[in-house]
Amino acid sequence: MQSRTPASRATGRPRSATADAAILAATREALVELGWSKLTLGDVATRAGVAKTTLYRRWAGKNELVVDAVAELFDELEIPNRGSLAADIEGVVLQFAAILARPEARSGLMAVLAESTRDDALRERIRTSIVERQKRLVLEGRTRAQARGELPPESDPTTVDLIFDVVAGAVIHRTLVSAEPADEQWVRAFTRLLLVGLGGAAG
Amino acid sequence: MQSRTPASRATGRPRSATADAAILAATREALVELGWSKLTLGDVATRAGVAKTTLYRRWAGKNELVVDAVAELFDELEIPNRGSLAADIEGVVLQFAAILARPEARSGLMAVLAESTRDDALRERIRTSIVERQKRLVLEGRTRAQARGELPPESDPTTVDLIFDVVAGAVIHRTLVSAEPADEQWVRAFTRLLLVGLGGAAG
DNA sequence: GAGCTTTCGCTACGACCCGTAGCGTAACTG
DNA sequence: CAGTTACGCTACGGGTCGTAGCGAAAGCTC
């Protein structure tokens, strides 16, 4: 998850785990107060109570640091078992929306995504530490729905990717671009659209 | 569209329209070569062949400049009339994906969106100059589909916003986060999902 | 404990970019 | 012509970057 040397040496003074947590927390705090562009590593170091050099020993730069700081926010996501596919979708989308409503997630996530368009290593870091880990939610929801008979037992792997892009993309666009809350009403309408399509929904 | 004084004065030396175009083109060029974070206004000025002070007289900062530079890319969007709602959607989504495939759109758009989470004026600038102008495509497509009898003649205004978030969000997430091309195959699958929903599509 | 290794906090540094001020010149109006 | 505004250029203080060097601290092995 971090950029330390692959095999941790058995000898010498070990790195402080407390410092790691303090730095990541300070990064999120700075994201809230300053946003991405005005966030400086020197400021983060001061907030965390560590030296600037300590920070540079662990992370290559601002991008990598913010990815790790933001990734922790998404670890709490779980898909609830509410008895129906529609209810399960609504539940997980609301959780996702709640995370994106937090300012440290908003500015941090979009900024590192922007940087990742020009940095393949960074994009891979984002994919493995944030994006790909949440696809399990789609897989789990589909498995449950198939067991209930709500979805055909087919299993095209590209369909999972499509659904993930649609769900995550819609929520992100709603909250970060349109800047409107993804509240219960919106989530219900979105879930209905996702399940029955434009033809079945109110046009 | 730019940050000049509201009423252009009748007296004095007029601002060079050539310089405007050169600066915006230079900004896109710099976005391609350097990306957002390494783009400097001094460099843009040099590329455009103007003085740095000239640039600061017209734009308040990097954010506003990039918004204008990127906004021009989206003006070419049109929804084609292909005879069916599905074909119309596929056509406009492919156009949208083609724009997002360009590096100057990728890094520029995401970066200003990230900044807009902490700057209300910037978000409003993005909404009026980029986002809101493309909602006409959804409205136009729906009107056509209703005339063809493909959609009920209802007209819930929030549905348009929902569809826009779903379409734009999915394409953006596919191209910028998943980093996979929104090619014809993907667009066809997405359109089918949008029209008939999860129940009708292959699960 | 002694000795080794690595991390830590601290200071200092050159390099770069920021955003603005000041100046003389260019372009356009009445 | 005078008046007004934009332009190119130079220069500046202020801030951040990322790194180097130092002595001290914190572990591990013997």
Automatic annotation (TrEMBL), chains A, B:
Alphabetized Pfam families for the sequence: TetR_C_11 (PF16859), TetR_N (PF00440)
Top-level taxonomic group: Bacteria
Domain HTH tetR-type stretches: 17-77
InterPro entries: Homeodomain-like_sf (IPR009057), HTH-type_TetR-like_transc_reg (IPR050109), HTH_TetR (IPR001647), Tet_transcr_reg_TetR-rel_C_sf (IPR036271), TetR_C (IPR011075)
DNA-binding stretch(es), residue numbering of this chain: 40-59
Alphabetically ordered keywords of this record: DNA-binding, Transcription, Transcription regulation
PANTHER family per the UniProt record, alphabetical: HTH-TYPE TRANSCRIPTIONAL REGULATOR RUTR (PTHR30055), TRANSCRIPTIONAL REGULATORY PROTEIN (PROBABLY TETR-FAMILY)-RELATED (PTHR30055:SF230)
Name of the featured protein: TetR/AcrR family transcriptional regulator
